[in-house]
Amino acid sequence: MASLLQPDRVVYLVRGEKKIRAPLSQLYFCRYCSELRSLECVSHEVDSHYCPSCLENMPSAEAKLKKNRCANCFDCPCCMHTLSTRATNIPAPLPDDPTKTAMKKAYYLACGFCRWTSRDVGMADKSVASGGWQEPENPHTQRINKLIEYYQQLAHREKQDRDRKKMARRRQCMPLAFSEKYGLGTRLQRQRPGAPISSLSGLSLKEGEEQKDITIEPAPALDEVEPLPEDCYSRPISLPEVTTLRQRLLQPDFQPAGASQLHPRHKHLLMKRSLRCRKCEHNLSKPEFNPTSIKFKIQLVAVSYIPEVRIMSIPNLRNMKESQVLLTLTNPVENITHVTLAPCEDDDPDDINSTAKVVVPGKQLVLAGKDAAAEYDELAEPQDFQDDPDVVAFRKSNKIGFFIKVIPQKEEDADVTVSFKIRHDFRNLAAPVRPSEEGGAAAAPAPAESIWLTHHVELRLGPLAP
Amino acid sequence: CHFPSVKIAAGAVVCVESEIRGDVTIGPRTVVHPKARIIAEAGPIVIGEGNLIEEQALIINGYPENITPESEVEPKTMTIGMNNVFEVGCVSQALKIGDNNVIESKADVGRNVILTSGCIIGAFCQVNTCEVIPENTVIYGSGCMRRVQTERPQPQTLQLDFLMKILPNYHHLKKTVKASHNAS
C-alpha cells in the first residue's frame, strides 16, 4: 500500500532546543556534533536571490533596491501565474508616409491559465517586447520614503549611542564597522523584543556624511470623511467585477476593489538558503550559486547517514492481541552497520505518543553496506549473514525486513502508535586528523572511529481493525 | 426508413480513425482529429463551421445518466456553433454550444449547461450545473473560479488552415457528402 510509505508514518525525535518529531527525509545530520538537526534548530541564511521564471540571479543589494522583485517578469493579478508576452499584428500608419499602413507588432501580456490580458485593465499595447511595462505609482510613496528616512536616522542614532556605551565599558575597542557588518547573521544581533530596531541601521548613511536632521509632520486628522456613494445599498453587485480578498491583498499599495483596476506586479524573487548548525557553526546545507542547478555544495541530510526505518506491511491490529508488523531498515552508508533495537523504558520522557506495547527483536541486526556497483557485479558472492528467520524476513543488498510484535493497548484506537530506540554504529569520517606524537611531516590519518548513536523512532500504524 | 448517416460538408477534414456514430452533420472548415468521438445516441448532432475537435475528445448526445428510457423520448438535437475548440480529451454533453468557445483539455461539460459565446472552460474543470454560462466567461482553476474577460478568444484560423493542409498527408479522410443532396 502506498499509504504506508507516506513520510509522516515514521518520525525520528530531534533533541534540540525543542523536541521535534519529523520524518528522516526532512532532517539534517551534523556530523561534527553527531546529532540530528531539524529545520528549527539550525540557522537559516540567505545565499542568493533569483527569479523563478527567468532564473536570473540577482545580487542581494540589487534585490533590496528592487524590493525583491524581478525586473522582467510579471505575475497575473488574477491567478498569480506568470504572464507571457504575446504579439499581434496591427495595421499602423508608417512614420514616413501617413497614407500607407503597414503591419506593426504590438505586444500585450496574457496569462495562460485564467486568460487575463493586459487589455482587460486598459493597459495599451506596447511596441517593445520587454521593458515597456510599468507598474502604477503609489500615491503615498513620497510620504512613506520620508518616514523611512526619519526612522533610519533615528535607528542609526540609537545604534551609535549603544555602541558608544559598549565601547566605554569594554577595554578593547570594537570598531564601529564590526557591528554593522555582522548584521542579523550571528546570534549576537538577533532581535530581542523590545530592543531598538537595528535592522534599519544597516541601511543608514555612511559614517563621514553630514547627517541633517529630518523632521516629519504628524499625519493630519480629518474631521470629514468621504461619504459613501448614494447607490451603495441599492446597486446590484456584479460578482465578476469584485476582486477576491487574495487578489486584493497581493497589492497592498492599492487594494483595488474592482477587477478593472488590478494591474500586474513584478514577480517576487525566491531565495536559496544555506543552513548552519547552531552549536558548532558548521554548514549543513549549502546550495549551488547558479539558479539553474539543483545540486548542493554541502549536503548533510539525515537520510545519507542514518539507517531509515520504513513500514512494509501491517496485519489486522486487534486490541490486546499480539500482531506481527513487517518493517524495513535501509543502510545508507557504504560500510556494514550494526543496529540494535530496544523498547522504550516505562518512565521514558520521550515516550509520550505510543498507544501500544512493542516487542522488538533483541539480537543485533547487521546491515550490508550500500554498494552502487552491486547490480552489475555478477560474480560477487552474496554475503552470508546467518539471519534468524523469526526475526529477519528478507535481505536485499543494503536493506533488511524484520518483524516486530505490536500489542495495541487502547480500545477504539484511531491510530496505533509505537515507539522504540534504535542504536547503530556510525563511522565519523569528519573527525579531525590527529597529528602523530612524533611530529612527523606527513601525519598518518587516524582510523575513523565508530561511535554509537541512539535515536528515538515513532511509528504510526493506523487504526485498529474493525 | 430513415437511415441515420453522417453528413460531412465539403471543406471539412474528418479523419477516418475518428468514431462518428448516429445522425451527425459536420459543417465546412471543421477539422476532426483521429480518435475523436462524436456519438449521437439520443438525438442528432449538428456541428457548425470552423470547429476544431482534437484527439480523444468526446462529443456525445446521450441519454441522461446513461439509462436508455423504455418509452420513446423526443430526440433532442445538439447544436454546436462556429469556431469552437474542443481540446484533447474533453467531454462535452452540452446540448447547445454557441460560437468561439474553447473547452480545454480533460474538461467535462454536462448536459444541462448551455454555452453562449466566447466561453472558456479551463482544463480539467467539471461543469455540470444547470445554467446558461454568460458570454465571455472563463472558468479556471481547481475550484472552477470564474471571471469575465473583455474580449472573446480568437478563432483558430491559422491552426485550422495548417491542419487542413497537413492532416490529409498522413491520414485518410472520410468522404464528404453534400448535406443538401437527398441521394447518398
Structure description:
The complex is a heterodimer of chains A (466) and B (184). With 466 residues, chain A is mainly beta. Chain A has 4 helices and 22 strands. In chain A, the strands form 6 sheets. Chain A has a 6-stranded antiparallel sheet with strand order 2-1-22-21-16-18, with no helix packed on it. A 5-stranded antiparallel sheet of chain A has the order 6-5-11-12-13. In chain A, strands 14, 15, 17, 19 and 20 form a 5-stranded antiparallel sheet that branches. In chain A, strand 5 (42-50) and strand 6 form a beta hairpin. The longest helix of chain A has 29 residues, at 141-169. Mean pLDDT of chain A is 80; it is low at 181-210 and 433-446. Chain B has one helix at 157-170, and strands at residues 6-8, 13-14, 19-21, 24-26, 31-32, 37-40, 45-47, 52-53, 58-61, 78-80, 85-86, 91-92, 96-97, 102-103, 108-109, 114-115, 120-121, 126-127, 132-133, 137-140, 145-148. With 184 residues, chain B is mainly beta. In chain B, a hairpin with a 4-residue loop joins strand 20 and strand 21. In chain B, the strands form 3 sheets. Chain B has an 8-stranded mixed sheet with strand order 2-5-8-11-14-17-20-21, with helices on one face. Chain B has a 7-stranded parallel sheet with strand order 1-4-7-10-13-16-19, with no helix packed on it. Chain B has a 6-stranded parallel sheet with strand order 3-6-9-12-15-18, with no helix packed on it. The chains are: A mainly beta (466), B mainly beta (184).
SSE layout:
The complex is a heterodimer of chains A (about 475) and B (about 180).
Chain A: E1 10-15, E2 19-22, E3 28-30, E4 35-37, E5 42-50, E6 57-58, H1 60-65, E7 69-75, E8 83-93, E9 101-111, H2 141-169, H3 176-181, H4 245-249, E10 265-268, E11 270-277, E12 283-287, E13 296-299, E14 308-313, E15 323-330, E16 337-343, E17 356-359, E18 365-367, E19 392-396, E20 399-408, E21 417-427, E22 450-460
Antiparallel strand pairs in A: 1-2, 1-22, 3-4, 5-6, 5-11, 7-10, 8-9, 11-12, 12-13, 14-15, 15-20, 16-18, 16-21, 17-20, 19-20, 21-22
Chain B: E1 6-8, E2 13-14, E3 19-21, E4 24-26, E5 31-32, E6 37-40, E7 45-47, E8 52-53, E9 58-61, E10 78-80, E11 85-86, E12 91-92, E13 96-97, E14 102-103, E15 108-109, E16 114-115, E17 120-121, E18 126-127, E19 132-133, E20 137-140, E21 145-148, H1 157-170
Parallel strand pairs in B: 1-4, 2-5, 3-6, 4-7, 5-8, 6-9, 7-10, 8-11, 9-12, 10-13, 11-14, 12-15, 13-16, 14-17, 15-18, 16-19, 17-20
Antiparallel strand pairs in B: 20-21
